[in-house]
Structure formats: C-alpha cells, structure tokens
Amino acid sequence: MAKKASNKKATKKEQGFRKYIIWFWRLFAAGVLFVVLIFLLASWGVFGKLPSFEILENPQTNLASEVISADGKTLGKYYLNDNRTPVSFEELPKHLVSALIATEDERYYDHSGIDAWGTLRAAVFLGTRGGASTISQQLAKQLFTEQVSDNIFERIIQKIKEWIIAVQLERQYTKEEIIAMYFNIYDFGNNADGIRSAARIYFGKEPEELNVEESAMLVGMFKNSSLYNPRRNPKGVGNRRNVVLNQMYKNDFLEEKQRDSLIAIPLEIDYHPESHREGIATYFREYLRDWLKDWTADEENYRPDGEKYNIYLDGLKIFTTIDSRMQNYAEDAVKAHMKRLQTEFFVQNTDKRNPTAPFLDITPEEIQSTYERSMRQSERWRHMKYDLKKPDEEIIASFKKKIPMEVFTWDGEKDTVMSPLDSLKYYKYFLRTGMMSMEPQSGHVKAWVGGVNYKHFQYDQVKQGRRQAGSTFKPFVYATAIDQLHLSPCDEFPDIYTCIEANKYGNVEPWCPKNSNGEYSGDMYSLKYALANSVNTVTARLMDKVGPQPVVNLIKRMGVEATILPVPSIALGTPDISVYEMVGAFGTFANQGVYVKPVMITRIEDKNGTVLYESVPETRDVLSKEVAYTTVKLMEGVTQSGSGARLRGNWATNNTLYKEIITGYPYEFTNPIAGKTGTTQNQSDGWFMGMVPNLVTGVWVGGEDRATHFKTTAYGQGASMALPIWGLYMKKVYADEELEVSKAEFEAPEDLSIRVDCDAPPTEDQDSIKVDYNEGVEIDF
C-alpha cells in the first residue's frame, strides 16, 4: 500500500515536471515564433520602410566631386556637407583592414552579418564586455537607419532592422566590398568624410600610404570621432590608438615587439584642411566651379534620367591640365617675392612718408570716393542690401561698427577687432598679383595663381582682372610691322621726337609719346634694341606705318576678348587685358604663329568612370612661322640686354636691400628666353611675360586701385615687381627634371628670309630687301 502511494506520488511529480518542460518549450517556441514574427514584420516594413533590392545594390551616399591634376594629384573637391571620395578595397593597406577587424569585429570572416557569440555575450553581460554589432551591422546603421532613439522599444526595432539589413548586405556584397564601404561611409570629423579624406586631412597622404600607427589612430576614431578627435583630444586619441594596437597584437596581426615600439611613438598628425578656400590652386578651383555650373546647366550634359549633375553630390571626377608640382612652384614663387615686396611697400607708405597712404597722387575727395565704391562692391553690402533689404544708412553704419575679425598678414592670420570699413582700408595696402603658365603647343594651363591668398583676396587676377598691359603690348605692334613690312630685328630707326597727326587714326589730338626718361637720344636703334629697352618713339613710328586697326585685328585673332579702340596710343599698352588673355596671345609666338586657346579641363567622368566630357582644342593660324619666329628673336633681346637681363648671370646692385627684395637670389639662366617687361603710368602695373619653347608664363603685380603704387620705377617697374616671380618659378621648374621644361633654342622655320642674327652679315636675299621705313612720319626737330 505504501509502495503504491509512493509510486503514485512519483508519477504525480513526473507529470508536474513534464508540465513545466512542456510550458518551457511552449514559451521557448512562442519566443522563437515571436522573434521570427518580429523579424518578418520588420522585413515586411511594418515598423518602417527597409531598403529595396535596388537601393541595397546601389546605396545612395553623397559623393564630393574631385578636381584632379595632370599628374594624378587631388587639387581639391566640391561638396556641401559630405567631403567623400570612395576608394576600393585594393587601395586600402592590409594593416588598416587588420586594425578594423581586430578592433571592431574579430569574427568578421566567420559570420554572415550577425555575430551570435557576440550577441549572447552582450546579452549576458549587458554590454560590459563589448558590444555585439558587426562591421556589417554598423554599415547598415550608417547607410540605412536613423539616429538611435531614446525609446527602448524603438531601439530594439532599430537593432532588428540593422540585423536584417546586415544579413542582406552580406548576401549582396563580398566581405571586402563591405569593409571598403564602411571605410568610405564613416565621418572622421573636420570635413574628413570617408577614409580617403581622413588620410589626406589628418596625414596629407593617400590611404595606401598610411603606416601602421596612422591606420590604428583612424580605426580608433570609429568608436566616436567626435570624442576621439586628434585636434581637440590628442591624449584620448593616443590612448585609443594604443588600444587598437593591442587588439592587433591580440589577434596576431602584430608581433609583441612591433606593438611595443608603435605604442611608444607619440601621436603625430599633419593637418591639411580641405575646404573651398584652402589648399592648392584655390583661384583655379573657383574658376572651374563657375565653369562647371555652366556645363551642368546645358541640357546636352544632363544625366540619363534627365536631371542636372550636381557637382556637390554626384562624385564627378574633373581631370585638369594643372600640374600640381608646377602649381606649388608658382604659389611658392608668388609668396616668396610678394612678401618681400609688400614689406618694402609698407616701409615706403607710412603716414609720415606718405600722408595719403596707401595711395599716391590722389585727393582726399578721391580717397573718400574710393572707399565708398569699395563698400558698395563688397559682399557685406550686397548681402545687407539685397538679401536683408536694409536701407543704405543702416548698411553704412554697420561698416563703422567694430567687430572681432581675422585679417591676413604675411606672417599668418591675425585675430583683431576693427570695423569693416577699417578692414577695407587695411586691405588697400596689399599689392595683388596674377600668374598663369601654359604649354603653348597644347594650350594646357599648368599653373594658375589668381592672388596672394584666396581666403582674404577672392578676386581672381588671372581671368577676372584686366589691367593696362604697358610695354608687354609692344610685341603685337612689332609683329604686325614685321608681317606687313617684312622688317628685321636688325633694321634701325631714329630715336627722335615723333608725332602722329590728329584724326589720322581716329585720335582727336596729335599723339606724341615720350620715352620713359622724357629724353630722345637722336641715335639710330635696331628694332631688337628698341624693344629690349622699350623705346617708345620707335614703337610709335611702327604704329604709324601699320595703323592701329591691323594691330587690333592681330590680337583679336590671338584670343584677346577685351574691347580695344583702334587708336595709336594702344601701341604703348593702354588697353586693359587679363593675364589669361596675354598668356594665350604670347603662346602664339612660341607656337610658330598658331593660336591655341588655353585648355584647363581634359575630361569629366561620373562616379562610375563613364566619360561625360572631353576637351577639343580650339586653334587657328594667326601668323606665319617666319613672323612668329622673328618676333620671338626680338623678345630674346629683352632678356639678353634689356629690362629682363637681370635673369642672366649674377645680376646685382650695390643696394643690398634692393637686391634682397627685388631678386631674392641670382637666377643665372643661360638658356634662350624670350620675354617682355611692362610698366604702366605711375608704376600702377608691373608685368613680365616670359617664354621658353614649351612654356609661356605671364605675371602681373599691382594694387587693387591704380592709385596704390610705388613712387619710383626702382620698385614699381615690371622688372622689379613681376619678373622676380617668373625667375623664382622657373628656377624651381628647371630643378625638377621630370617636368621636361625646355632649355633649347626656339625652332627656326625652314627657308628663313628675314635676318634675325644682327651679328652675322645679311644674305644676298636679305640684303635685297630695301624699304624706306621712315617715310611718312611727321618729325618735329
């Protein structure tokens, strides 16, 4: 009986235990079904839309458009918020990938988007021993899910979405593609969107050039790039980098000794900010931005879907003719010379030495008018007048109110407090410059420097600015005369007082130019000597023989678009012409009489490498080879014995300070150089145009206003203001043999009938040419 009762009791216990087991499995099954149901509902979009197959196939990320130099370097980018340029997995160094896997997802190659062990560990230890997010989940979060919610239910749903998308990504892409996408999508701070921007901004390198400790630092920033910002928190970033190095050692990616030596290295960054106002070729990039706006606005260039390309979002690649090495040399030359020249300008324009500083030969009323005009032309005035609709009185009052600001100095930017009007006056002191260098045979522009600092001086003196050309215009007059009269550089003309009578060529009054020194020697000068020494009377005589209209016609065919009146005075360079136009025109001489319009863009590609645009050279025959070559030989005289002779040998002066400011150091060029200096009235503009067989470079220097200038020609002439920049630039260009800039003679045409070597006797054909070049010129003794 007792045994029976005992068996009954045991059976009851077994039944009770079975009931618990059944309920456990029921609950477990219900939980599994609930989880499956939640996943199904999430995948069906009940808790919010998931990305479609098409979107997974082509994730939408904003890509910056990239400006690429002729030598394959990135000059800059166009972007709004995302400075992102993607790279492929093959462009990532192995140690960078290893650092990511060791730190963020040790079992990356063993799971399919969800790390079960990591998830279980995170659930058991409540995340105290590391999270469970895989690289694929983090990518899903970056690409397709919104910011983390404070609501726990929403966070769970969000995590489920990440799991689903992570699994879909693993099915859609290879492990390597997912890693590349993750590196490309992450925001490293300081406009460093993606690994390529991060490598360039923090280390001045491409990703493939990163070393192990640099890779470790960038991977460490994945934890929180805002907190671990190397500019704001170098100590924290250094510690985080060392955590990554330890993880690499733990996962057998580093040896112990290697880890220890890397941890001992102090954190170092080489910060290269990337913005529209900083970096290399800023003026050129701004010109290119405007060109791209016009190009994208043309319906012929629309995307296949009929929409305009967006240069800030669509990841275009713009391949340019600019050579990053030559651009750097040009910018260095401008900085080196302009800093010295500006120092002397400040010395000569103290209030004691010049009460109207920085202006000369100008009345107080004209000074006031200059400042008022500058106010109305400023961006501040435009914004307040047209965007904010403020009355003029309020705008003028705002210009007189002191505010904190950052101003430019040649020793770096300076924080100060001054009124916007005072800042306008301050910047009037600074001399400006424009420089462009071009290969004449192809028209490819190799360097473009539109000013001394784009952030503070945004007016581009290469393309936007037009200033009087001075004596750099004279070669056009000489070329016209050679073409029409078959002149030789050896032909001689008298240096005597010369007039062109009134109304002969549309000039209202008689035009009687003086030489720069106001004197006339009465001697006979060869054309080569006259051009080399800018003898105005000889140029006037040539102008009278050919007339101004043929000269205007010539320079128009050479690409000069400026409006030029066909009057005799243009012979001395009164027309306003841009550096861009002058370089293109002088390129015609170097290119044997063929004009090639300057080319800046070779092609444009979309983000997939499809070519959208390719440049087609625009050329035209302007002069015969003989005339072009003869004009070049004339201009060689400028650098042999004229105003450009300081490029030769160890040119010096007894004034040590003058030599330091004007020349910097001896150039000592010995190769053939054709060129022309130019100086306008009152030294307001200084020019130098210099050519070798495969490179033409133009430089202009002057003030923003013509009243801002040096008092004497010692500093104010083109040979002092502009030529040194050319010399410094070419010195570095020639030192870089990879550039292959020519030191050879200019190529002479076959069957040359014009005598160009004045030291050699003329041939029989050359001697047979007899023309009375002086006939018809009014000479007043």
Write the layout of secondary structure elements.
Blueprint: H1 2-43, H2 53-57, E1 65-68, E2 74-78, H3 94-104, H4 116-124, H5 135-144, H6 152-172, H7 175-185, H8 195-203, H9 212-220, H10 234-250, H11 256-264, H12 282-297, E3 317-320, H13 324-348, H14 364-377, H15 379-387, H16 392-399, E4 403-407, E5 414-418, H17 420-428, E6 432-438, E7 445-449, E8 467-468, H18 474-485, E9 492-494, E10 498-499, E11 524-526, H19 527-532, H20 536-546, H21 548-557, E12 576-577, H22 579-590, E13 594-596, E14 601-605, E15 611-614, E16 619-621, H23 625-641, H24 656-662, E17 674-679, E18 685-692, E19 695-702, H25 713-716, H26 718-721, H27 723-735, H28 764-767, E20 778-779
Parallel strand pairs: 1-3
Antiparallel strand pairs: 1-2, 3-14, 4-5, 6-7, 6-19, 8-12, 9-11, 10-20, 13-16, 14-15, 17-18, 18-19
Helix pairs in contact: 1-6, 3-9, 3-10, 5-6, 5-7, 9-10, 10-11, 13-27, 18-20, 18-23
Number of domains: 5
Shape field: elongated
Please give the CATH architecture of the largest domain.
Answer: 3-Layer(aba) Sandwich
Would you state the CATH class of the largest domain? Alpha Beta
Largest sheet: 5 strands, mixed
CATH superfamily of the largest domain: DD-peptidase/beta-lactamase superfamily
How many strands appear in the DSSP assignment? Answer: 20
Structural class: alpha+beta
Using the coordinates shown, work out and report the CATH topology of the largest domain: Beta-lactamase
Helix content: 40-55%
- Give the integer mean of the pLDDT values: 87
Q: What topology, given as strand order, has the largest sheet?
A: 2-1-3-14-15
Contiguous runs where pLDDT drops below 50 for at least 5 residues:
122-128, 768-781
β-sheet strand percentage: 5-15%
Cα distance spanning the termini:
159 Å
Number of helices: 28
> What's the alpha carbon Rg, rounded to whole Å?
36 Å
